[in-house]
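Troubleshooting entry. Yesterday's outputs looked truncated, so today I'm pasting the complete records for two proteins to confirm everything comes through intact. If either block looks cut off, that's the bug. Protein one:
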Amino acid sequence: MTVELEVISEHRCFDGVQRFYKHSSQEIGLPMRFSVFEPPQAKQGRVPVLFYLAGLTCTEETFMIKGGAQRLAAELGIMLVTPDTSPRGADVPGEADHWDFGTGAGFYVDATEAPWSDHYRMESYVVDELFSIVTTQLSGDAKKVGIFGHSMGGHGALVLALRHPEKYRSVSAFAPIAAPTKCPWGHKAFAGYLGADRSTWEQHDASSLMRQSQCPFPEGILVDQGLNDQFLAEQLYPEALEEACQAVDQPLTLRKHAGYDHGYYFIATFMDDHLRFHAERLS
């Protein structure tokens, strides 16, 4: 089914085009926004796609403005796609009361608890609806799709790749929430969206999912983590993902960088490495 896409803005960028879109979402039941960088190679046909999932409080604009990814993406011929981080205007009581839950904090799960379950369906939106739009109405190649993200979005990228390996050929992350069942951010989000049954939480925890798998990405996973990250000790738990990968012989490159924090200066520093990592696997 064709979705009517409204172009909010369009900008020429490295001989490609940066666009921001709005559309009525069937999965969310509300208008949703997303951004796309289309490389110049898209003029000749379908191109590999790299989805980026942003972190808490971000929007569909954050990565495209701060990530510094378009120059190399244009050279490599990769389409970049970023959804918003949650529904907007769902009118759930209290949805804007906390920066780490509700608006801007959808955690890329399909909520099962009322009233969040009516609109907070970010997993289905990203994996099904937006994937379809990008690979049918836009110039993305459905057989060459990777996913990466930062913090909450790093959690999302790892989890969606593990839950839907048929959709994604490559996955990487910057400072992901690697074991949300162990940290305050995850406890708050999962209790609110998924309810009190912690067994359901495990199905949205990258470290737990990895232990249930059998080397799902034999070409490897790349994770970068800053050692001056203010959230590292309490929220991120990269060592849990590392241990899980070792348990199932999943190749993982976990790079730890002295002096780097949690923000986009860190992300921009290592962006080219991630783009080349995905380009090799999507070629």
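Protein two, checking that the full record survives here as well:
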Amino acid sequence: MILSVCPNPSVDTYAWLSSLEFGVANRISKQQEFAGGKGVHVAMALNEFGAKTDLLGNWAGHSGKWIREFCDDLGVQSFGPELEGANRKCYTFLSENESLHHTEMLEPGPALKKDQYHAFIENFSEQLDSANLAVLSGSWPKKTPETAYAEMITIAEEKGKKVILDCSGKQLTNALQQGFFGLHLNEHEAKELCGKDDPLEAMQELNKKVDLVALTRGKEGLYLSYLGKVVHANVVLKKVVSTVGSGDCLTAGVAYGVSKGFSVEEIARHGVAFGAANCLREDLGMLYRSDVEELLPKVSIKELSYA
């Protein structure tokens, strides 16, 4: 079982606007809502592809209840403490106006009290006993210690469990101080951490702390370093409907490959196919197994080497 962890779930909302003007009423002509948050996207992708996964999150108010029910309807069981307030909403605006199209607005979400944080960590420790791998993804609610992910990684190491992390900022830098199994990050995060534009140079630096590095560069695809190998994987899509959640689905594909004991090449292939499948439909942060299966043989794999 893969434990998917989402400390800061959200309701992801597609909102259609013809234009956006300040100081006047702007009417949304249509909207669609989906369960969101990076770890929620990971759980939904794994579940759709037939992998057993449970979801650990912090749940608040009506929106938290709605997210859990959305996941439950898909067959994803959720756990975690209930907070005051409400889980955040994340809006993606769609418009014929290019300057507005795919503009995102993210609410802050609830705060996490000390006792609720400890409850979350205890839940993680308990649920980890049934898992062989944990995927920790995304931001945290306000007032969370900046060492939260580092603490969870320590617990996982004590239990002999692998962790794949996808986050940024202080949570990531603190986690990297002690090292862990797997990391997914994009080229901008890699440059911020390592000061290097070249993906291979950044990965070589990160491999000092992390066994598996999955570095994504948008249309240029995935660079994956693991077990002494470095590969580049990519697939060309004729049409991209939405990229929201594609990185999270890619993380899910990598986690799926690791959990199955796949080769480095096949881990990369599944990561790219999962991420690309998410781009094919309007469903935010979601993929369809049929799309993944169609894309898998189309993913190109090239072995690279450090200079």
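Both blocks look complete. Sanity check on protein two: The chain is about 35% helix and 25% strand.
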